[in-house]
Amino acid sequence: MAEVDTVASGLIDFLNASPTAFHAVAEAKKRLKEAGFEHLSEREDWNLETGKKYFFTRNHSTIIAFAIGKRYVAGNGCHVIGAHTDSPCLKLKPISKVVKGGYLEVGVQTYGGGLWHTWFDRDLTVAGRLMIKETKDGSVSYSHKLVRVNEPIMRIPTLAIHLDRGVSEGFKVNTHNHLLPVLATSIKAELQKLAPVNGSLEFEIDNDVKKTDAKSIADNKKHHPILLQLLADQASCQPDEICDFEVQLCDTQPSNIGGVLKEFIFSGRLDNLCMSFCSLKALIDSTASGSSLDDEPGVRMVALFDHEEVGSNSAQGAGSPTMLDALSRILKAFSTSDSKFVIGLSNALLHASLAWLWVASFTLLLEKAIQRSFLVSADMAHALHPNYMDKHEENHQPKLHGGLVIKHNANQRYATNAVTSLIFREIAENHNLPIQDFVVRNDMPCGSTIGPIIASGVGIRTVDVGAPQLSMHSIREMCAVDDVRHSYEHFKAYFEEFSQLDAKISVDV
Q1: Is the pTM here over 0.85, yes or no?
Q2: Are 50 and 270 in contact (CB under 8 A)?
Q3: Which cellular components does GO assign to this protein (predicted)?
Q4: What is the DSSP string of 475-500?
């Protein structure tokens, strides 16, 4: 039981440190550095070595980490676990200042397909990143800083039942009119000299305070000064040094292990930080010993993408070239235009001809590497709900404690096929790990994952899996402690055994 508690408690720590995708990547970076992974920059050349471990980030909301086997040569494959760092939430609008009815409210926009009614009557705060202008010795630079306000500072109150007698028949949320959190009352803020009088832009200023500059006035038009000051305090800067920000609302209730038998994890963002954590821990632990990569001919990789909840179409989403870029740069570090490319070439040949031969050779190696690679698309799955059992197909009802779920869809909403599911099942059987299957009912729409996006964009074999959970896309979700352990052990075994298992499978020969 101690091992289960260790993995689950590690997830709890990861969740509590990760209120946003930016924070999740920062926490992943910290853990990777502690495990000996070297930080790379996509803006620089990569000097890679076999037996070494690396990672890079994009936009600080996507992170890719990989360990290169000591037997790796150019053209060998990567075995990857892909997940995502983002979750449905409410994000502040570019102009968030709202004053009405004697209240200071904050304008937000919905991100992803959240269960928005669960955000009402919660103790909320904000977290995200700020872009800060820094001046030193007359030189100006810009940096991003992560911020998080730990105290509850706002709330979205529901309407009293006395004013909406029909609410018991269905709580309907107008996401534009009703999802505005209350930050403060105008009169209290006015007394603190931090809010406009009657919604105007005029401020009462003490004699010993310098006159507000143009940027501060512009910011005060866009955001409540009290909110800007709070964010600035978190970043240890002045409000007028904040050039821009990406900030979202967060629940202040911490993640925890619950249930009368301590069998559940109660938390926000389990979709999909649970799979992000399990895959990251599996990579770190599978490469922890000095000899763990001695017999590895491939590259073990974890790719945690942003923007899955909104379609993955961004520079740092799974629909971007990020995955292919990583595969290409690893391959390029181990493929050179050596003497075999120039044999038979006369001195009269142009350098362009040599370059063309190198490109052609590199392209062939990349194609080989992709076909030798494998992706586990890891995204949380729908567990059977005891109060809505008719929502599941009768022969495909994933249960909590039942292990990872292999997701199938004939219309390719999931990328699983017989070959890819076989590989994942064999690993489960070899380690006596439970495994489950899921297909959506024929009369219901099917969600999707990064699996089909990467499979179709890169051409890599893919299986879609995920740990079962309840309350998906709620501000507060739940899964089973056992399934966190099952997921971690399954992913770790995949990293350690894929190369040997894949060599036994023959399809396109």
Answers
A1: yes
A2: no
A3: cytoplasm
A4: SSEEEEHHHHHHHHHHHHHHHHHHHH
